[in-house]
């Protein structure tokens, strides 16, 4: 986030980009870089969202965030969070979660060291490190994940036909567009005899 960002305009969108499906999306925001001159305002706005948006049974009206998908992943995400806390990092946790199930509060990590495990490893869960920066070139030079996004303050429209996805070690295929539709098909040969 650069100094000219409209925090009120983008906060919920960034929040959902990080925590949609409780952060269990391969292209979810895994690290959020915020310019030091505005750092506190977006941090506080995101924390407010984490404290007010409910976690629980997503079949219930108004509940947007559910559990972590399985026990091994739940334990892994809790370990990342606990290691961050034990290292003295500041965790900004969200709303209370149900006692039963693999639920964890939506958690912001307040400016962890960029080489800390919570900032380097993909949590694939409801943890978002907020990283303070002063030089955008340093951010660009930092390590990249599976996906990256640059948001600008202009109204541009992209085609719904733009494919999203990856192959090899970075994904299982493509969504959207013709390429996404082809993921649901298998080629078949049909032979029709010529009429006599």
UniProtKB/TrEMBL annotation:
Transmembrane segments: none annotated. Residues 2-151 form the Aldehyde dehydrogenase domain. GO terms for molecular function: oxidoreductase activity, acting on the aldehyde or oxo group of donors, NAD or NADP as acceptor. Keywords: Oxidoreductase. PANTHER family: ALDEHYDE DEHYDROGENASE-RELATED. This is Aldehyde dehydrogenase domain-containing protein. It comes from Pseudomonas citronellolis.
